[in-house]
Amino acid sequence: MAHVFRELGSRMDAIGLTQEHGYELPMTQEELADVLDLTAVHVDRMLKAHEVGGLITRTRRNMSFPGWEKMREACYFDQCFRYPGQQEPFLS
């Protein structure tokens, strides 16, 4: 899930759809569950665990990432893998 959030952030930043510390998640929890091949209940639990762990804060679909660097480490996300030469997105 953390990797999906990072990937979405990178792609949305590339087209100017991010805010200072996050973005609007363009899908429901059920859709996110489908993407991750998980149940909606498990996705809800994972979102709550990410909130408790300080990786994310959310209000409806607005996602903020106070623990962006910690999330990057947790999911082994390499920005340069997808976008060579591009700076780390909005939360570096």
Topology:
Elements: H1 2-14, E1 22-24, H2 29-36, H3 40-52, E2 57-59, E3 62-64, H4 68-75, H5 79-82
Antiparallel strand pairs: 1-3, 2-3
Q: Tally of extended strands?
A: 3
Q: What order do the helices and strands follow?
A: HEHHEEHH
Shape: globular
Portion of residues in beta strands equals 5-15%
Radius of gyration, taken over Cα atoms and rounded to an integer in Å: 13 Å
Uncertain ranges? none
Structural class based on helices, strands and sheet pairing: mainly alpha
> Helix count?
5
- Sheet with the most strands? 3 strands, antiparallel
For the biggest β-sheet, the strand order reads 1-3-2
Helix content: 40-55%
User: What is the arithmetic mean of pLDDT?
Assistant: 80
Describe this structure in words.
- By secondary structure, this protein is mainly α.
- It is 50% helix and 10% strand.
- It contains five helices and three strands, in the order αβααββαα.
- It has helices at 2-14, 29-36, 40-52, 68-75, 79-82; strands at residues 22-24, 57-59, 62-64.
- A three-stranded antiparallel sheet has the order 1-3-2, with no helix packed on it.
- Strand 2 (57-59) and strand 3 form a beta hairpin.
- The longest helix is centred in the N-terminal third of the chain and has 13 residues, at 2-14.
- The chain starts with a helix and ends in a 10-residue tail after the last helix.
- The model has no long low-confidence stretch (mean pLDDT 80).
Task: Give a short summary of the structure.
The chain is mainly alpha-helical and 92 residues long. The protein has helices at residues 2-14, 29-36, 40-52, 68-75, 79-82; strands at 22-24, 57-59, 62-64.
